[in-house]
Design goal:
10% strand, homotetramer, four-stranded mixed β-sheet, alpha+beta, three-stranded antiparallel β-sheet, 19 helices, 410 residues, Growth Hormone, Chain: A
Chain lengths: 410, 410, 410, 410
């Protein structure tokens, strides 16, 4: 069977599958499942084109990784075919641990378990199934392989993941000003003592990459209406879990039921394989099907939240640089109580506060390093030509406050 | 409340909502539901970017209708604000009658009922709700308004629907060669005796529009793998209906249950409002949630079909210009019987035949008329400069034959 | 010195120079001269973005040739690095013989000498200079190399030249509906008995390629206003030659003077090297500089034509499927005589007739061959699925008639 | 005659000419002349697609001005048709005073005369010719009209000029990461006390606009190779002027001769109309024609510089944050002397130093003002959410040093 398939990508034109092993991984049900998990959760409520999936993003990242490998090889670095393939598989699987609605429900469906940890588990599983063919991939993914630049291409502040998702999210949202020069950045990559660095003449592309990412955070990922919709969904799942654990009947697919009735965390995954299996059986559709059913649930809180989300009657939201005044919240609460039906006791589902943060560049830890023409290595935030990188390398934190326009919607 | 919202569209840049009434229609749950119905059904299994919805398409078509109105007004035609708004609403709602998976399940979920007829019913419902504000829209939609060009812009061989969907489907699939000059075509529109015509100098854009549409049919809408996936989904719903009507328990949302347990057609919709209400409560998610559940159904036929679709193990498919040889089918059948588990008796779910057709331009009936410089009106298929339009104005018919690679998948 | 330069191309992103030899050819003054010859002559008078040069087109074609080589190699064909490089150089130099304004002045500046013949001479010259490094290139270019597909990629009805120029001309004119799927076509290329063929599943891309090319001819290359401007330029140079050969002083750069004062043809180039040298010293700027000067020439015909072109006061133009009626021309002539200043005797510069032709696909000779799934080779115009190719494979011929709106412009 | 023409623009699709007066201005020879002046001078030597003209840019800016007018009117501001038209004409003519090679030769061909001052003169001339129809345009252009926002749209740190040129320069160079959200910025424009302001929710688009502009300066406008080519051209014209004023014969078109033989400045333009007329007869072609001729001039300095530029044998260039060490220059000078032919005495044409500056945002004077939700007006550089704007609002200055690789080129 010919496994040299090509995928159409409106961004890159064509994506060619480089090897039989990679073809088989793409065909695997675990990977096909990513077709049913959107990259940007609920963002399509604000940007209607933003329906692209983790599946497509993973393919795109694999494609860019191939370009990066070619660039580095053309600069004289010896990278074996095995290493290339492993790096491409590592980026292909970097998001395999995402569950329904990715980041949105990451800490509501599961107990303190990041998707990276689950990705690790799944890659190990796949490696067993593929009889060790993913050994090198695992090493790169877990950063135990000596050639560190390979891991850095998979996960760092200048990884291929970001290059693809920024390009892709811009494209599908239509926020054209977030466009980055992924091609140019890749052409500027270099290796210095096994670490990934960027040639000096690429610094303005890096500057643009960091400011574009910052823009995308405010304009898209942390768009206030997106935040509002996500907080609603979190409250929905929180309520459903509460009801389920109280013994109430809440409609759910079999795997979703498990995660509603129990608080499952990383250790459970390790102890009992059924949890990972159930996790891998879920996708966005499980949640949507439940929300559509819960819109008619007898619990007023659950049904109101679900109907509101389905009909896009979203919470109002206020952002602020500082903590909201307790009095302001108190007044709002009283107003909500006054308007609320008797049966509603728990306002915590309707008056939601918290913080969001945007870090364009984190100066600590894993830096983006520039290889100067004189041979020196300089942190991008210290480059004298880039005063603004330092300016945006502190974490910006904003407080949000969400509440419904009315409680008598239904 | 400010209703002058704008939508981001990666294709047109920004789409502005032109009036308060249109804003209220877009906010209506019936219209918001289109956010959950994909424009191209299962096409994303072949073109992973093709996830765009009927919601986005309807907004885009409304935008283009606005441009068409402006062009016609700038050419001296008197079109009132009311007519403009009604034409924009008519195109906004032209697909409101689509159910889950649009065309794919149009004749499986329902009994001989086209989506246009349902659109009619829904527009009438909305008109009541909006207290007659859609009177003119209804007339345009049903073609009872004397100024025929308005209906032709909503529904004809050169309607705004096609202009938007061709542009949109090209964009999201990445099949760039299907691109049409929607802008140029709109600039070339004219009115002649209340009929829509195209200025002579636009003929090559029309030629390209027709050949591009033909290409999109073969390359996307009737792509053999797409056909295969769609036929699988039809068999799935057919089997589920069969089981449901046999009294078997098949998982389904409440509204979907109604359509599985009963054969509902246009008359039922007219007689009993609950059917339309149930129909309007369904979207792609109802079907996906069921398919995910049915993958574990005890009925071998149903579960096998569902698992195969979810894991993208699609039927093989053969296309042919002529009927398949009965012998060929017989041999295939025997082979399938031989390989099939005892419990499988009904091969009709696994060996599927039928025909697909592609009509680039239908020379009968509602023609595309060219206004020649000398004042004559000429059917585009008779224009001497366009010999190829005549050549592609016959309907091309192909026979297909689908069957699974193996029956022991699970 | 590092010769691994990259060029920015708004169409392909980046174009990498694949070898040192190719770098040196690009640096050669003969090739750099193509920076000063526009791809589309005077088309920017109609499509203001159409300013791209033969230099950029040649680089783009070289890039696509590289992709084609990779595709063919990935399908198992053994193509040596030398062959790849030679094919890339051949396409890089395929237009090297173009003079100022390319096709427009091809038969006015020179005597019955096609640019291909001059390209041949120049490639021979370069081969001498590069000490035989272009031997294989010459063979491919002149079609004496046994592996015919290499020449077909350089020059045939489906050559890389056309793939690039269609993409490029669409992009810079903004005629988006002319877009072709160059990527897809290249992926579908195959070799069969040393001949270039296209895989069956690529037929709709080929159909689109042929109809898009047809569209570009009518919409751009033979746009009536373009034709009018080109005919004016031809009359200008014809008049200048006439005056020069009458002994009148007409301003011209040294090399241009040679071609104005003499009727130089292919044999002259072969006999005396100074002619080729002079030819290679000319570009669009020589013509423009003269036209700007001639706008003030005392010869009324020359100055009127030049001023009109510079100020974009173009001839009116009429196209017709049949010969213009002699009477119509007679009347027009009389009208022009009546209005013309006494000093104007020769109307042949102002009343210009002739024919233009558009052949979407020439069924004779060098066909586009499809490799059917059953192994047969079929001419694209005979493929049963493409009835329109046959329809457009006859040559369409139109007669034109140009004349100035007024003769008292100045 | 129908003056409702449309222009194809690969960026905006179609540009419609909004009025007969604007049509007549576009047809005017002064404006048509901009077809022969490139927007980016010699940048195509580095980015081969960057051949677009001031003509196209002016049309694009006129188009965006129309969008801006519509946005402001839709927000309830009363702007008359006359004001709209005048604003569109003002932006259409904002660059009319540019001479050959725009900024490159601005201070070499003329004596201390900015192109804005010449634009003023030309607009006055046109106003006379159009019998006062440009009165309002003149007021807006000269900022004597009370509604200041109109002038700010024509000339300020957030003017329509910049919105178009950034979009256009990105598009044609292919530097996609310089893309700005011109559409979004225009949608965010507001008027506050007759001053142009930006709605608060547009701040990230403004941030991106400023950083993108900064990037385009380093990556394109001040690209070191561009600077090198421009400095060569300046030396060429400086040398030609020197020779001409010494009485040497240097080839030039009539108008160019005037500017070579004399040092003409603003006062001369005012005193004697022939200078403006001569200026308006020049364009890029006059310079190129001379350079091509001068490449064979007997003056070694002139001919060497010209040949080098034509064959793209550009000066080497070094950039530095501080002044170059005098010793370094001295050594370089000696080396050049040692290698130079006897006849070469004046090294100032070959060893060129100077500074370039990049000011992403100038905090002094004409600020970009944000209209906060609370009604306050805040300078964009003081917005607390934009720490990086302050960081890039200082002027960055770099020193350059250019010299030829060899002096024995010819």
């Amino acid at each position: 069977m010919n496994k040299k398939k090509i995928f159409n990508d409106p961004i890159y034109g064509f994506i060619t599958i480089p090897s039989d092993l990679i073809f088989d991984i793409i065909e695997h049900p675990y990977f096909q499942r990513l077709r049913r998990i959107r990259q940007l959760g609920l963002t399509d409520l604000i940007y209607p084109g933003a329906l692209h999936t983790r599946f497509h993003h993973a393919l795109g990242a694999m494609h860019l990784m191939g370009l990066a490998m070619n660039t580095l090889k053309s600069k004289g670095h010896d990278i074996s075919d095995k290493e290339c393939e492993a790096a491409q598989i590592a980026i292909l699987l970097h998001d395999i641990g995402h569950g329904p609605f990715s980041h949105v429900l990451e800490h509501t469906l599961l107990n303190n378990t990041s998707h990276e940890k689950i990705s690790n588990l799944i890659i190990s599983e796949l490696n067993k199934e593929f009889k060790g063919a993913l050994d090198l991939t695992e090493k790169i993914f877990k950063n135990t392989y000596p050639r560190k630049f390979l891991h850095q291409l998979v996960s760092s502040q200048l990884d291929i993941d970001r290059l693809d998702y920024l390009k892709r999210d811009c494209f599908f949202t239509g926020v054209s000003e977030g466009t980055i020069g992924a091609d140019r950045i890749i052409k500027m990559l270099e290796i210095h003592k096994d670490q990934l660095v960027v040639e000096e003449k690429g610094i303005y592309s890096i500057e643009n990459f960091l400011t574009a990412r910052r823009l995308m955070y405010w304009q898209v990922y942390l768009h206030k209406t997106t935040v509002s919709a996500e907080k609603m969904m979190i409250q929905i799942v929180r309520r459903a879990k509460y009801l389920a654990q109280q013994g109430e009947k809440v409609f759910a697919s079999e795997p979703l039921s498990i995660f509603l009735q129990n608080d499952i965390g990383y250790n459970d995954f390790v102890k009992n394989k059924k949890y990972l299996k159930a996790f891998l059986a879920m996708d966005d559709f499980d949640i949507w099907a439940s929300i559509k059913s819960w819109a008619h649930h007898k619990d007023y809180i659950l049904s109101t939240l679900c109907k509101s989300l389905l009909e896009r009657k979203l919470f109002k939201i206020k952002l602020s640089g500082k903590n909201f005044d307790k009095k302001e919240i108190e007044i709002l609460k009283k107003e909500l109580y006054r308007k609320s039906p008797e049966k509603l006791l728990d306002l915590s589902y309707f008056l939601v506060t918290g913080t969001i943060t945007n870090a364009a560049y984190v100066a600590q830890g894993d830096k983006i390093n520039i290889l100067m023409k004189n041979g020196n290595i300089v942190d991008v935030a210290s480059a004298s030509d880039l005063p603004n990188i330092k300016a945006i390398s502190k974490i910006v934190k904003k407080h949000y406050l969400c509440w419904p326009k009315s409680l008598y919607l239904y």
